[in-house]
Amino acid sequence: MTQEIRDTLKILPQGPGCYQFLDEKGRIIYVGKAKNLKKRVSSYFNKHQENPKTRVLVRNIRQIKYIVVNTEEDTFLLENNLIKELKPRYNVMLKDDKSYPSIVIKNEFFPRVFKTRNIVKDGSKYFGPYTSVAAVDALIEVFRKIYKVRTCRLNLTPENISAGKFKVCLEYHIKRCDAPCVGYQSLENYNKNIAEITEILKGNISLIEKQITIEMQHYSDELRFEEAQRLKEKLLLIRNFREKSQVVSNVHYNLDVYGFAEDENAAYINYLHVVNGGIIQAYTFEYKKKLDETPEELLGLGIVEMRQRFGSESKEIMVPFIPDLILSGVEFIVPIRGDKRKLLDLSEKNVKQFKVDKLKKSEMLNPEQRTTRILKTVQKDLHLKEIPWHIECFDNSNIQGTDPVAACVVFKKAKPSKKDYRHFNIKTVVGPDDYASMAEIIHRRYSRAVNEGHSLPQLIVIDGGKGQLHAATESLQKIGLYGKIAIIGIAKRLEE
Description:
496 residues; alpha+beta; GIY-YIG endonuclease; Nucleotidyltransferase, domain 5; 6-stranded mixed beta sheet; 15 helices; 18 strands; 43% helix; 21% strand; elongated
């Protein structure tokens, strides 16, 4: 720890804020938030860090900067903005697939509505991104069928239309456009359609249905049956679209739902935005872990990111556990039962599937990764000191108490190594003595391996209970290998 860091730690304020760690070249390598800046920043230097990545981070810190804020809620927003802007080396970063499309309503006369992957800050309205391109295409097709939005790129200013610069195109003749380019459709009428499209994209389909129903009844009362019939056809199309969309409840909930999953390298978060009981937005993303971030911290980061990205102002957020996050006027709920629990289950199902799909894609590109994952799982479940790249399994048998035999099956890198399989005839045991037979084959196998310099396994698996396992460990002790090779026994259910 440098003297500059010691001096900074002494003067750090006790209030909420964000801190930045800089390396010897003055680069910001980590950004963090804290309820109490002094307590949080000092903790990096006052205790031994168990996580290797955190130890490396601390060794590289040469300078500390900080920003004081008014409330704890502000720390979450500021941290999220700083991480996105500065991209520090040791912060978790959102792995964002830029190829996901959004739907844009352009800021222009007679606005176009189309799919895009580029966000341009020109006053246009963007909805998304959507993970399904097919869903976006289907939605835009619905808008063109119901509202006949234009598809051309003409500069439809009032001056150009009045000057008669344009002619109707095929879209008008096939009744897919009402030809605003030649004045057949007014700007007021067109913008009314755009307003309805906007509400549908926000999820307010029931509001549009209500407005159209009132307008349809008005035309009917005035005996304007053709206009009423056109509105009826529009209403039927909208209702058909709504029936095909996923409605989760007859109760008109407006809330956000977050599912969470993780592995040792990344966290995965699914976001569902529910408006009037219908899911209008579903998005799953990944955070690459950098240090020893907790699930509560990672979920908090994800919630801040999604609320900013999608402009959500939901006051209820369904979560699998309470995140490390405070938002003014927002309630975090872990639902136990009912429709809200079903929503959370759906979100969790999506995030788990996303995790599995990512894993499968990764393992297709690198088949050895699957082997490593499987063996690391074995190592973790059996509390082994090292990954069991080499496993040997033993079983013995006899025929009604005579002709005792044994077999050794070998796995290397989680695959059968049949050239290393061995069959043993028991030589020193008379009668049906499974314990003595196991002791003999273990002694023969590994005394020879030691004498001839063969590689030893990281794990021995005995098909048997405590008796066979005890006999095998005694043989390893005689050879001097006990404690150097992990050994387990697999007993039948209810067997000692």
